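Archive entry. Fields below.
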Amino acid sequence: MAEYITLGVKKEEDPSENRVSIVPKDVKSIINLGLSVEVEEDSGNRAGYTNEDYESSGAKIVKTLSSKVNIVTALNAFYNKKSDFIKNASVISLTDVRTDEDISNICKNNELSLFAMEFVPRIARAQKLDALSSQASIAGYRAGLLAATSLKKYLPLMMTAAGTIPPSSILVLGAGVAGLQAIATAKRLGAEVTGYDIRLAAGEQIESLGAKFISDEIPEDTETSGGYAKEQSKDSQISQLEFLKEYILKSDAVISTAAIPGRKAPILIEKDTVEQMKPGSVIVDISAPSGGNCESTILGESVDVKGTTVHGPKNLSSEMAYDASIVYSKNIFGLLEIIINENKLEINLEDEIIDAMLVFQDGKKRIEV
Ligand code: NAD
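PREDICTED_STRUCTURE:
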């Protein structure tokens, strides 16, 4: 166990990643926990935070993190598999460890401890650490704006001297964190909004935002004890596609956010349905990184399918990097408050937050993911 802890902020290596894992304001709070902080040069540039901002908060700017670093923070620490990983360090990052075997090998070979931010348990005490929610909320907001600016129409009802223009109708599929934020954003912009989810509990939340909730015959128990959706049977999937088609064809824009943790996203919009949408319609498929809810989605691209624009954004929260970094940094700080005690790293495996997030400890895999 290290006596003095140095935290290192890694510069993101993914060229499309604009966010930074710790913002200058939190450097001060981390120093107050008794740590010193190194930040790789220009880490915050793309999010709007300068090297000088970090220095004036008390961080040391370095070309690459030194071997003194015990805790490395990142959005995606394993983007570059050939990076020099600091042996024995604790890494705090969002990861693809569930699906990417290379990450496990890197952790083993470098004796890393890995706190995977996607495994923050969904319990009240862990809300401050919940990076999936903080980033999904931003993605949902951004998706609402993308739908609005991609449409060739007003969102609100407009009564003008030249005539009355009806409001646009927006359908949001999946009403978790991102979906609810997309609904709230589209509502604020004046659209007529409809929301759909297989979890019946989502209905009340959709309606509380002033949107209409639509629901088909939901035959199964669709929710896990953790509040996530369960994968549906083949029969339910087929009847769901039929049910949704009618609503999709009536909509000007569809924002789809449906996801099942650790699985490919369910298909909710078939190619044939996209082809029948009104010309000028828009689909924003937030689930594109996990396979997409629409059969026509291409990750990272916006494609035209018979007059309908289908967006498959890779990383919507990175497009709002300034604020997305503020909340992600706060999520990480929430974890640091738990694992740092009197300047020392103290990993209490009895703590259910640590137990859920610590996938590797000193290179040894301790939970199956
Ligand atoms: P998610 O990103 O895994 O999925 C997004 C939404 O897609 C979910 O609402 C899910 O029900 C829905 N979905 C999945 N398959 C579908 C299908 N075939 N058709 C329609 N919809 C489908 O979920 P999320 O946004 O991370 O949140 C899931 C739940 O967890 C929500 O109830 C949320 O309120 C809850 N939550 C709780 C906490 C907490 O207690 N700390 C924190 C965050 C979220």
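CURATOR_NOTE: DSSP finds ten helices and 19 strands in the chain.
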